[in-house]
Specification:
mainly beta; Neuraminidase; 5-stranded antiparallel β-sheet
């Protein structure tokens, strides 16, 4: 495990999470393991209701909160998930509490939130890499996350757990989703539709899918692709037919060179584990973190995300650089596939254009970095996107001036409704926050979703550096804006 941040197992472990697993497609039926239930109990002394009228800290006042994600349903419920590590207890003793995965729920489209609720973790001492989704057919909420550190586990081992709530995030049950083929799992991503739940995860070059057809009670693990690229699922959607689509931002070799990133999508046929892949784009290696900041492996490396609009058109947002050379300042690009096309064929995906406008203000010579792009689909041809960049850095050394930026398109990304809007805001109560932005991205992904009232709900991590901890805690921030 990366010595710079032994408290998390995300990008830092990517270079060594390879397993020796039998080749070919393999499927096993797995019983649910050690399901437990946790009654709603906020982390004392968390307030019962949190107002979220501006950019709002939805974690602990003293952190240390990392890598959040967000999900919204068609009834106006919004859910935020985050990974908590012991933070600074000086403003709130609960901030120094043990590592947990927490969910905070809103019943009014993100205007107010209830208490932080810790998820059952089946006795694993360490957890991270959390993603949240809602089954629109049933209203059930699911969270996938990594768990590791049990005495009987090897140092590199990690399991995939899935927590479920059927009462709007009040109580939760948790099951183990991976099977014996994957022992050093990484980077799980989850989607659900009508009790069909799909979780993708990786182990080195192996691309895994675990599927449940009974709402997470039992799981069937499949090795859906053995490749020459280190695998990383980065996003997921479900189409109208119930097929599950995932974005993969895979690393070629050690995520170095001109073709370091292989961006592909996979489709899993509804109710099955039958999965096919289509390569959409590739990209060069991302830049290294500044010498003053110690980061994990490929922290600024390949990133992508997938979205679907109401008409069934698919979109893939992906990280590139300009010019297309290794280590150059990153930008965000967009490709799409029309609903009437066979999007499992690479040739059906078309390049649309550049997404970010990081040079609209500041960013002399385009030297700032646009990272961690995320995308969400709305009505036909409507997309909303976010990314982080440090265009307001002063000096532009990539250790200050970071912000989240938001942009929308009504024609599938061909044109944009205007320049990007700065989403993140200065918060005097957070030491990493300054008038020109926060000091460093805290976590290598963030989240965006759309509510039925026409709001974009967004969540991200702000930090001092990559390591964090009680002396330099990071915070998870939520904000909503009209689309």
């Amino acid at each position: 495990m990366d010595s710079t941040r032994a408290t998390q197992i995300s990008k830092p472990v990517r270079w060594w999470v390879a397993l020796a697993i039998a080749s070919g497609l393999m499927t096993l039926a797995l019983p649910s393991l050690s399901a437990t239930t946790l009654k709603s109990a906020p982390a004392t002394p968390t307030r019962a209701v949190l107002q979220a009228t501006t950019a709002t800290n939805v974690g602990f006042c003293g952190g240390d909160d990392w890598e959040p994600e967000v999900a919204a349903d068609h009834l106006g419920h919004v859910y935020v998930v985050l990974a908590h590590f012991p933070g600074d207890p000086s403003c709130d003793p609960a901030s120094g509490s043990q590592r947990e995965i927490y969910v905070r729920a809103s019943n009014d489209g993100g205007q107010t939130f209830g208490p932080l609720v810790a998820l059952p973790r089946l006795g694993y001492p360490s957890i991270v890499d959390c993603v949240i989704t809602v089954d629109e057919a049933t209203g059930d909420v699911y969270v996938s996350f990594l768990a590791y550190g049990k005495p009987d586990m090897k140092a590199a081992d990690a399991d995939v757990l899935v927590a479920k709530s059927s009462d709007l995030g009040v109580t939760w049950t948790t099951t183990k989703a991976n099977g014996p083929q994957c022992s050093a799992c990484d980077h799980p991503w989850i989607v659900a539709s009508d009790d069909q739940v799909y979780v993708t995860y990786a182990a080195g070059e192996d691309h895994f899918l675990s599927r449940s057809s009974d709402g997470g009670a039992t799981w069937h693990e499949s090795l859906v692709l053995e490749d020459t690229h280190v695998a990383f699922p980065e996003g997921g959607v479900v189409d109208a037919a119930g097929n599950a689509w995932f974005a993969w931002g895979d690393c070629f070799g050690s995520c170095t060179g001109k073709t370091a990133a292989i961006y592909q999508v996979s489709r899993t046929v509804a109710g099955t584990s039958d999965t096919v892949f289509a390569r959409v784009a590739d990209g060069p290696a991302g830049p290294h973190c500044p010498p003053a900041v110690s980061c994990g492996f490929a922290y600024w490396g390949p990133q992508d995300d997938i979205a679907i609009d109401a008409a069934g058109n698919l979109y893939l947002i992906w990280q590139d650089s300009f010019p297309r050379k290794p280590g150059r300042p990153p930008i965000a690009q967009l490709s799409s596939c029309d609903a009437e096309e066979d999007c499992t064929q690479s040739s059906r995906w078309e390049y649309v254009g550049r997404v970010d406008d990081k040079t609209a203000s500041g960013c002399a010579d385009g030297a700032c970095y646009a990272l961690y792009p995320r995308i969400e689909g709305g009505a036909e041809d409507e997309i909303s996107v976010i990314w982080m960049d440090d265009r307001l850095g002063d000096p532009l050394d990539h250790t200050n001036g970071w912000n989240v930026w938001y942009r929308t398109s009504l024609d599938g990304g061909t044109t944009w409704t205007g320049p990007s809007v700065r989403v993140s805001q200065f918060g005097a109560a957070r030491s990493e926050s300054h008038p020109n932005g926060f000091e460093f991205p805290y976590g290598d992904y963030q989240g965006i979703d759309l509510t039925p009232s026409g709001e974009s709900v967004m969540v991200w991590g702000e930090g001092h550096n990559y390591i964090g901890g009680p002396s330099n805690p990071g915070h998870v921030i939520f904000r909503s804006l009209p689309t």
